[in-house]
Amino acid sequence: CTLSHRLGEWSAEAAASIVTTRATLDAIVLRKTTPPEAIQAGKLRIEGDASRLVLLFGMLDQPSGLMFDILTPGEGRA
Predict the structure, then answer these.
(1) What is the mean pLDDT of residues 3-31?
(2) What's the rounded Cα separation, in Å, for the pair 31 and 35?
(3) What is the H or E stretch that residue 25 is in?
(4) Which terminus in the chain has less CB density within 10 A, N or C?
(5) DSSP three-state, residue 18
(6) What's residue 39's pLDDT?
(7) Around Cβ 68, how many Cβ atoms within 10 Å?
(8) How far apart are CA 22 and CA 28, in angstroms?
């Protein structure tokens, strides 16, 4: 299972695609909401095999107080 993000691109080989915002993804990872709640609120859409969403989120680390950005796109470019 691989998490890939390419703005405006989808792979024909993907088992599932998840369409959401960064804010919703953050809320799910930080356990402020759940994927089913986000789906009901219209903030998350799954295209393909929804069981892959369960697999993906099951592999994510639990958040801790020591979280920080490792790499931020576009930062530090001249």
Answers:
(1) 82
(2) 10
(3) helix 22-29
(4) C
(5) strand
(6) 94
(7) 4
(8) 10
Instruction: Please write the tens of the pLDDT for every residue from 21-65.
Output: 999 988 988 889 988 999 999 999 998 998 887 787 777 777 666
Query: Where are the domains positioned within the chain?
Result: 16-59
Residue 11's Cα: distance from chain center in Å?
A: 16
Burial class (CB in 10 A: 0-12, 13-18, 19+), 14: middle
Residues contacting residue 31 through CB under 8 Å, at least 6 positions apart:
63
21: left (phi over 0), alpha (psi -120 to 50) or beta: beta
Please report, as a single letter, which amino acid is at residue 32.
Answer: K
- Whole-structure pTM value: 0.59
